[in-house]
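Translate sequence into structure tokens.
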Amino acid sequence: MKQKFDIISSTCVPLPLENVDTDQIIPARFLKATTREESFFGENLFRDWRYNPDGSINKDFVLNDPTYSGEILVAGKNFGSGSSREHAAWAIAGYGFRVVISSFFADIHKNNELNNFVLPVVVSEGFLAELFDSIKNDPKTIVEVDLPNQTITNKATGKSENFEINGYKKYCLMNALDDIDFLLENKEKTEAWERNAKA
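Result follows.
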């Protein structure tokens, strides 16, 4: 969903598991879908963890625990490894997460999130561990992600870190532009450059 990014303050959903791959985020059988509707993929985010083999809800999985909610997913190290399927980013966005925090993302998945208006925030392992502790101690812990200033703050402790983001992607997120929107926004500049190049 195209939404302008600025400052996001939200409670978090903790997923303290390392090496969560894209097949766990969205199982391969959903890649055959003929739709790209966000709601469809969002409903099947972490499908095999959210539901038991008989289709009943797995009450032990965090997305089914009403204690936790919010627009921010806090995940363990090496999030989004495995297959490069963009469907994993569709599922995260479709569920309603706008930010994913981890100490390391697989590169392709990280870019897929950015392309689907989900902000991947890389933090130190120490900051991540402290954040998990804060959420465990108080599920109402607020995290503030300030994209303009590229900072993330754990409101429970007051600690902040800076995070990196490609300048082009930052501009697109802050202005709710995908790659095509960006090209259209700069259409006149592109045409002027082409005219000058031919002169």
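Note: The first helix runs from residue 22 to 25.
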